[in-house]
Design a protein that fits this description.
Strand order of the largest sheet: 2-1-3-4
Largest sheet: 4 strands, parallel
Number of helices: 7
Structural class: alpha/beta
Strand content: 5-15%
Order of helices and strands: EHEHHEHEHHH
Shape: globular
Length: about 160
């Protein structure tokens, strides 16, 4: 079964046509590398959608994925940064190129995982990540939703370990 990879990047404030093209190009790269891509532009389906509604849709798709693919502009996006924060809290790998995906999943090179300056905001443990969520400049509703997802994931992991 193919690994499912979510695409994260800047959407808000972008030209809808150029933004869709940017995400579609990444989708093709991921699929050409042998993975299934989840394109949030297609999942939301409406470039005029309210940000909070769009984030709820995106997060519901993100948590079902195996990893996240970061577009070069992801760090300029509050939504993409929230997605990265959630992925790190859940221990999901991050990638910035199709080759990194192949290296990680096909070649087993775990060093392919993306690390960058955002790591300053997110700590290695889930408990520290929960603290980080509260201090990060995200709307309260989104912070609560992320915390709930992390708690639910931890409970699911605990049940699987027993």
């Amino acid at each position: 079964m193919k690994k499912v990879i979510y695409i994260a990047g800047k959407v808000t404030g972008e030209d809808p046509g150029l933004c869709a093209a940017k995400f579609e190009a990444a989708e093709r790269e991921i699929e050409n590398a042998g993975f299934k891509a989840v394109n949030p532009i297609k999942e939301v389906g409406n470039p005029d959608e309210n940000w909070k509604t769009a984030m709820r849709i995106c997060i519901s798709h993100l948590v079902a994925c195996d990893g996240i693919y970061l577009l070069p502009d992801y760090s300029q996006s509050r939504g993409a940064m929230a997605e990265v924060l959630l992925c790190r809290a859940l221990g999901m790998p991050e990638f910035c190129s199709p080759q990194a995906l192949k290296d990680y999943y096909v070649e087993g090179k775990r060093s392919a995982r993306k690390q960058d300056s955002f790591i300053d905001y997110v700590h290695a443990t889930k408990r520290k990540s929960l603290t980080t969520i509260n201090s990060f400049s995200l709307p309260l509703e989104l912070r609560v939703a992320i915390e709930d997802l992390i708690i639910a994931y931890d409970q699911m992991e605990a049940r699987m370990d027993n």
